[in-house]
């Protein structure tokens, strides 16, 4: 029912009222019988009765015409043209525009009314420029039409209805009402309904006369609060599949705390590098320092002291053909504990171990590693930055790799994520040379977006580990959040990760297919 009105009757009362009204006459039109009940209340009451087969009903929709304020005025005082005519009829001498306006008291009525009255030939102009009435009697059809609409909420002639609407005198609205009939189980009161057949009912014979509530096969099931995978987990799983199908091995990333040695020094990041500032990195105050780098399994027989010395030498004095940074390298700085700022710390550890492997030719084996895990940066939190996020990282070690090979590999890898036509931009990382930022055209956003960072690891880093000179290593990294936000159309990272995440969003998020639109 529109316009909606408030009813005081509860749905219980309304249902009983409907039954009482139906008993007197049927079919019943709800808009006549219950003009003030809302559509929702009526439908609820009717559905209740219909489910018990006490009533049957159809929904009917019809159009209702309502008067605009101007038309209300016309219904009460006559049309503009009629009012102009009436004023002139009373003034035998005729009236000037000004006098007419004074007589009617509404400039607008005069303006529109005199034009129409002329057309109808009800009035004319005298020689001295005054208006005068010429007809004896007029028929105010506009007022009549409007009065019809006012009384019947419609007009038998659709053309007139359309014309009044075009003149903005009336507006129409759709009205829903119900046509109600008695059902096979019609009664004046809603019977008590049994929901279960009990032993007592059988013993007493009450089941014979009891009314049973019918099954409602259309009822929706209750929502189940089962667990749901977070969108980041879904995208992570898709990415893991891409890596696995390309022959990658997953790196063990199960530690958030690293020493500066693995997070920075092993990667040839100088100790004065801004990334090592307190503003960029979270340092751990307790315990004060990390253990000296050491093997974490008995089969790791590498000489960690030699590695440490190499790292020191390559930073401080230069080695392997590099002139180094030439600053006094501090072992204490290297043993400070940090929340890892990138998973490249793990890659360094893995590559160091790789240097000890021996293929058929006695040289380290080619390898493909990846990881997807959390990293931490001391950033100001905003819509696209959090102090923690997930890094997706890949590393390929092999002999004779070239930068062109890295670019081609990126095309294939990101192509599997549905990102094509990559663009590469020279960039800088302390641990790679050359380095490239990777961009892809984002159709939804209509622009190039940065999707990752990559490069070929530096000789200073690789040779310190004992990897042979002709073994080259590609590395690249991207955030897990970026593709997830793009895929799920999220603009604020805080909706994706952290305490503001809406559980309904997590539960309602569909599965992700990275390669598809
Ligand atoms: N560690 C880089 C980052 O934080 C990603 C990267 C990994 C770049 C490996 C090059 C090589 O963005």
UniProtKB/TrEMBL annotation:
Pfam families: PheRS_DBD3, tRNA-synt_2d. Its main location: cytoplasm. It is found in: Cytoplasm. The keyword Cytoplasm applies. It is an enzyme of class 6 (ligase). Residues 233-510 form the Aminoacyl-transfer RNA synthetases class-II family profile domain. Keywords: Aminoacyl-tRNA synthetase, ATP-binding, Cytoplasm, Ligase, Magnesium, Metal-binding, Nucleotide-binding, Protein biosynthesis. Its EC number is 6.1.1.20. The keyword Nucleotide-binding applies. It comes from the Eukaryota. Belongs to the class-II aminoacyl-tRNA synthetase family. Phe-tRNA synthetase alpha subunit type 2 subfamily. This is phenylalanine--tRNA ligase. It comes from Neurospora intermedia.
């Amino acid at each position: 029912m529109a316009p909606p009105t408030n009813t005081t009757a509860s749905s219980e009362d309304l249902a009983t009222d409907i039954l009482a009204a139906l008993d007197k006459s049927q079919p019943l039109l709800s808009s006549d019988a219950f003009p003030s009940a809302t559509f929702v209340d009526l439908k609820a009451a009717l559905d209740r009765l219909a489910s018990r087969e006490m009533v049957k009903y159809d929904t009917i929709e019809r159009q209702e015409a309502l008067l605009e304020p101007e038309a209300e005025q016309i219904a009460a005082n006559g049309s503009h043209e009629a009012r102009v005519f009436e004023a002139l009829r009373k003034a035998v001498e005729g009236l000037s525009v000004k006098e007419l306006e004074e007589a009617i008291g509404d400039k607008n009525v005069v303006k529109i009314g005199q034009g129409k009255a002329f057309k109808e030939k009800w009035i004319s102009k005298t020689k001295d420029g005054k208006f005068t009435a010429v007809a004896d009697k007029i028929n105010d059809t506009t007022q009549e039409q409007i009065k019809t609409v006012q009384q019947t909420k419609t007009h038998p002639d659709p053309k007139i209805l359309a014309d009044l609407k075009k003149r903005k005198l009336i507006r129409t609205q759709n009205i829903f009402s119900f046509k109600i009939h008695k059902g096979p189980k019609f009664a004046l009161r809603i019977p008590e309904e049994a929901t279960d057949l009990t032993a007592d009912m059988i013993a007493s014979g009450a089941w014979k006369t009891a009314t049973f509530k019918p099954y409602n096969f259309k009822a929706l099931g209750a929502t189940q609060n089962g667990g749901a995978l977070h969108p980041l987990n879904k995208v992570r799983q898709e990415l893991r599949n891409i890596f696995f199908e390309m022959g990658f091995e997953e790196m063990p990333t199960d530690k958030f705390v690293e020493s500066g040695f693995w997070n920075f020094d092993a990667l040839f990041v100088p100790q004065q590098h801004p990334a090592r500032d307190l503003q960029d990195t979270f340092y751990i105050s307790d315990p004060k320092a990390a253990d000296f780098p050491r093997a974490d399994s008995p089969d790791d027989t590498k000489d960690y002291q030699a590695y440490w010395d190499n790292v020191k030498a390559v930073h401080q004095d230069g080695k392997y053909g590099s002139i180094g940074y030439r600053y006094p390298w501090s072992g204490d700085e290297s043993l400070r504990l940090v929340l890892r700022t990138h998973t490249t710390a793990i890659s360094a550890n893995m590559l160091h171990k790789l240097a000890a492997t021996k293929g058929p030719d006695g040289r380290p084996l080619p390898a493909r590693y990846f990881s997807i895990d959390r990293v931490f940066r001391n950033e100001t939190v905003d819509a696209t930055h959090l102090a923690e996020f997930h890094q997706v990282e890949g590393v390929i070690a092999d002999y004779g790799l070239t930068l062109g090979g890295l670019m081609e590999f990126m095309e294939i890898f990101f192509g599997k994520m549905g990102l094509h036509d990559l663009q590469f931009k020279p960039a800088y990382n302390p641990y790679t040379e050359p380095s490239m930022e990777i961009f892809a055209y984002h159709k939804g956003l209509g622009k190039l977006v940065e999707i990752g960072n990559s490069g070929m690891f530096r000789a200073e880093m690789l040779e310190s580990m004992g990897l042979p000179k002709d073994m080259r290593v590609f590395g690249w990294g991207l955030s897990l959040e970026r593709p997830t936000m793009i895929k799920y159309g999220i603009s604020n990272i805080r909706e994706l990760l952290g305490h503001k995440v809406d559980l309904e969003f997590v539960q309602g998020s569909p599965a992700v297919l990275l390669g598809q639109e």
